[in-house]
Amino acid sequence: MNGVHDMGGMHGLGPIAPEADEPVFHADWEKRVLALNLTTGAGRWNIDAGRHAIERIPGPDYLRMSYYEKWFTRLGMLAVERGALTARELETGKPEGPKLTPALTADRVAAVLAHGGPVDRRIDAAPAFEVGDAVRARNLNPTGHTRLPRYARGRTGVIDRHHGAHVFPDSNAHFAGEDPRHLYTVRFTAPELWGEAASPRDAVYLDLWEPYLERA
Amino acid sequence: MAHDHDDYHHDHGQDPPSDMALRVKALESLLVDKGIVDPAALDVIIETYEHKVGPRNGARVVARAWSDPAYRARLMADATTAIAELGFAVDPGEALGILDDFVTLGGHLVPWPVLGLPPVWYKAAPYRSRAVIDPRGVMAEFGTRVADDVEVRVWDSTAEIRYLVVPQRSAGTDGLTEDQLADLVTRDSMIGVARL
Q: Taken in order B196, B133, B122, B67, is the CA torsion positive or negative?
């Protein structure tokens, strides 16, 4: 979706302003939100659906909210959409219905964090491109989730690396299956993306799935 | 509840709890009461991200790569396996890519197990919007001036491959031990925005 989250190349969003000796968390509630997302999400949603929920926060709210405020909003959205809570429970804070069993218990946290959730997959289809091929990012404007930034659409680059097949976010975010596709790193020169004023020595590398690409 | 209330005042004096603190508390209570969340699991997760992962892990990877050419070669060939040698595992959904250049900006996603949770500026709109279009200007704000004839590469990581930059080793560090070298490696140098 063409949301405000896809902000690469925008101007006017303020100074970067790094904070000296920044703490890991700025408030106790931020820690709780992080951990509540991981525990509630276990077995209920995936990383792509999680990202897409944050993208679905209305643009003006998205720009105003802090990072963990967005995580808090996402938690409520997905808890209801995935049937963990009803909208009324979220509203009133009062539990109804039968008590459930936690999907992620304390004794399993270390193993789950260490194991992670690898997204590389084996598929039968041969890769359509090889390193060195010229490719164009297709001009796609889906209303659902995608990882193809707007600034790259219609631009031509060169395949720099092939990573095998990875879970395809455009499908997985909507619980429509993993649909693994070949993934490539594509090198775009800065002038191709930003015009002739950009340094011809500079480049942006993007990890792009095969359905985003066509032969140039 | 009384215990949490005491903690709160311990941390923040007499300020009333913020709106967000109250809203998060209410949602946490609901999720625990419903049996969706094991409260002890929350504590283990917080302990992990607050104290066990962080840029010190990545600094050890960089120091080993500087000290041991064979390790560096393994790291470049298969970063995920090479960091596991040092006891670090990649995070949910990730593979790890290593970028061997100080003018490389590893963008957009950081590998939590070796860099820790990213700083606020890294996740905020100003950096996310500018890194791809004005990497030289962004690096200049972090004190890194890159000569015009040097190539700058930005990796806007759009998949689950997270990137760690192995910065150029500082001059005059020949006699240092791996531990001493690790002390020199900053998080920002592994993101790529700063030089050592």
A: negative
Contacts of A120 in chain B (CB under 8 A): 95
Give the model confidence (pLDDT) of A165-176 as tens digits.
Answer: 999 999 999 999
DSSP, res B50: I
Shortest Cα–Cα distance, A91 to chain B (Å): 10
Residue of A6, A7, A11, A29 to mutate when probing chain B, most B C-beta within 10 A: A29
Q: Searching chain A, which residue's CA lies closest to the CA of residue B36? A: A102
User: How far A9 CA sits from the closest chain B CA (Å)?
Assistant: 5
Among A81, A69, A70, which Cα is nearest to A40's?
A81
Residue type, A104: L
Which pLDDT score is estimated for A79? 97
Q: Which residues contact A120 (CB under 8 A, 6 or more apart)?
A: A163, A164, A165, A166, B95
Question: What are the tokens at B33?
Answer: 């009461």
